[in-house]
Amino acid sequence: MLKVNKLSIQYGDKKVVSDLDIELGKDEIMMLVGPTGCGKTTILKSLAGLIPISDGEIALPKWCATAKNHIAPEKRNVGMVFQDFALFPHLTVEENIGFRLKELTQVNRWINILGLETIRRAKPHQLSGGQKQRVALARTLAHEPDFILLDEPLSNLDAALKDDLRWEIRNALKAAAIPAIWVTHDQEEALSVGDRVGILKHGVLEQLDTPEICYSQPNNKFVARFLGEASFVTGECNRDVQRVATSIGDAAYYPTEADQNEVDVLLRPDDLTIVHDDIGNGQVEWMRYEGSARLYSVIMDNGETIKVRSHHENKIDINERVSVRIFTQHPLQIFAHN
Ligand SMILES: Nc1ncnc2c1ncn2[C@@H]1O[C@H](COP(=O)(O)OP(=O)(O)OP(=O)(O)O)[C@@H](O)[C@H]1O
Hints:
Residues 2-227 form the ABC transporter domain. GO terms for molecular function: ABC-type ferric iron transporter activity; ATP binding; ATP hydrolysis activity. InterPro entries: AAA+_ATPase, ABC_SmlMolc_Importer, ABC_transporter-like_ATP-bd, ABC_transporter-like_CS, ABC_transpr_FbpC, Mo/tungstate-bd_C_term_dom, P-loop_NTPase. Keywords: ATP-binding, Cell membrane, Ion transport, Iron, Iron transport, Membrane, Nucleotide-binding, Transport. This is Putative ABC-type transport system, ATPase component. By secondary structure, the protein is α+β, with helices and mostly antiparallel strands. It has two domains: 2-221, Rossmann fold (3-Layer(aba) Sandwich); 230-336, CATH 2.40.50.140. The protein contains eight helices and 20 strands. The strands form four sheets. Strands 6-7-8-3-9-10 form a six-stranded mixed beta sheet, sandwiched between helices. Strands 13-12-11-14-20 form a five-stranded antiparallel beta sheet. A hairpin with a 4-residue loop joins β17 and β18. The radius of gyration is 24 Å and the shape is globular. Adenosine-5'-triphosphate is lined by residues 11, 16, 34, 36-42.
């Protein structure tokens, strides 16, 4: 189990990470996301012992690092997987995976699990990007680290490959039962492969929870906007029946402190329906074709802008009148109106 307690990190006078608390279960995968420059890589480096911390502690059962008690990287038994694979070019796949290992059981185990048998004697320059990343992962896992840090491991690979490989990585981490922190810029990846997602802003963790909770019950509008398309419409809460009424329909809501009369209601594009309607309640501003779906931006007659996702066969031209309605059966998240 990995425990990070009130961790703060500074570069000179500049505080980059503040009061970070994370506790990971023994085989838990935490995705770490946030805008560029918010401190994700800095956090990974501090956990690996590559940079000093200014406050707080990082603890595993075998050691505890603090500002005064720095633990050297090689004493932490941490595994790292980078976007550039970092393989030794002159060594074969099996030599890379077994680098400095005396015993080859783990090497053979991960070659087998990650499907590298046919390339075990190849050199890195003979491998595709996906194969290189599998080798890098196998090397990390074969060394049996106590925890693993992944810094955008898939960002140098093409989209089709990413999809499969992210699941292979998740399955391998689970098979190894090692806690992992995985930094990504890909929202879909963050929501689909992690057990929990941490959303960071200016070095502060805004929310750390399951993907479902972060997506459907974000703590604030920043988190809501960061994880997927988010529209906000004005609503009025009726506490007696726990429903919120808006200009495009009403729905149940998650009770929060923002439970005032007037609130802002979070709508995801899939919470809504859109049909062509000459009278309607809004007008299509733009449409983005996504293959199986179409994403519409609609300017409502009351001035609010709403994004709606619809089946690809539901084709509506720009500037056409439409009717947009709330469709979802699940409660909606509300925020204080501003
Ligand atoms: N060695 C350094 N010295 C001084 N400032 C640094 C150093 N490394 C990073 N920073 C600053 O710390 C902040 C956090 O950087 P970090 O690389 O951790 O962000 P990030 O969230 O990983 O960004 P990205 O998503 O772009 O990779 C940034 O403002 C960055 O400019």
